[in-house]
């Protein structure tokens, strides 16, 4: 408790070697292993690695909130998350577990957002993007789809109706999320 009975807010530091950052960096380093596992048809192992990465995201986030966030962690965490999701979409499309068009849509949306932020920064108008609710829903749906596809493939099962429904849910939320970010930035 801070003076006056208030809860102390975590301080933002610049340190790299914090436990949350080490966990986040390990998640980032898991990306090539996840890709390799899928390419080698070790879908069950890839599922467990993906699930572990999701758990590590929750753990490092919890630790960062309790111990204080770092500038490095604030930058590294979304990079690790996006690297894992985007590479899984590309890789699962490459091995024909997900449709190509969906992987292209997911990558394109992220490229538009990152490119837009970069252009604005180059123009001297840095923009801090706060995640929108539609984007949070989109990310959750993207994660569920990858997990379901990895699990089904790992178990040698097929659920075409479920997979198709999730693909369309991801496509719809990806389009809506991308459009919402463009609209937010483009408004006068």
Which descriptors apply to this entry?
76% helix; globular; disordered N terminus; 188 residues
Quick overview:
By secondary structure, the chain is mainly α.
Would you kindly provide a written description of the structure presented here, covering whatever features stand out?
The chain has 188 residues and is mostly helical. The protein has helices spanning 19-39, 43-67, 71-94, 100-122, 133-155, 160-186. Helix 1 runs antiparallel to helix 2, helix 3 (71-94) crosses helix 5 and helix 5 packs antiparallel against helix 6 (160-186).
Mean pLDDT: 87
Q: Regions with pLDDT < 50 over 5+ consecutive residues? A: 1-12
Look at the helices and sheets and give the structural class.
mainly alpha
Biggest β-sheet description: none
Compute the gyration radius: what is it?
18 Å
Count the DSSP helices: 6
- The portion of residues assigned to helices is over 70%
Q: How many beta-strand runs? A: 0
Strand content: under 5%
Question: What's the N-to-C terminus distance?
Answer: 42 Å
Return the string of H and E elements.
Answer: HHHHHH
- Shape assignment: globular
Which helices and strands, and how do they pair?
Layout: H1 19-39, H2 43-67, H3 71-94, H4 100-122, H5 133-155, H6 160-186
Helix pairs in contact: 1-2, 1-3, 2-5, 3-4, 3-5, 4-6, 5-6
């Amino acid at each position: 408790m801070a003076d006056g009975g208030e809860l102390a807010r975590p301080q933002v530091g610049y340190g790299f070697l914090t436990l949350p950052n080490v966990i986040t960096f390990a998640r980032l380093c898991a990306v090539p292993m996840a890709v390799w596992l899928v390419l080698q048809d070790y879908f069950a192992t890839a599922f467990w690695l993906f699930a572990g990465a999701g758990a590590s995201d929750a753990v490092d986030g919890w630790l960062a909130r309790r111990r204080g966030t770092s500038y490095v962690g604030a930058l590294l965490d979304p990079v690790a998350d996006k690297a894992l999701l985007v590479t899984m979409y590309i890789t699962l499309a490459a091995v024909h577990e997900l449709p190509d068009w969906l992987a292209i849509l997911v990558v394109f949306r992220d490229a538009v957002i990152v490119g837009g932020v970069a252009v604005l920064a180059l123009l001297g108008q840095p923009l801090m993007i706060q995640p929108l609710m539609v984007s949070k829903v989109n990310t959750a749906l993207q994660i569920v789809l990858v997990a379901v596809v990895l699990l089904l493939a790992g178990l040698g099962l097929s659920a075409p109706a479920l997979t198709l429904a999730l693909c369309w849910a991801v496509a719809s939320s990806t389009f809506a999320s991308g459009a919402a970010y463009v609209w937010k930035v483009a408004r006068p």
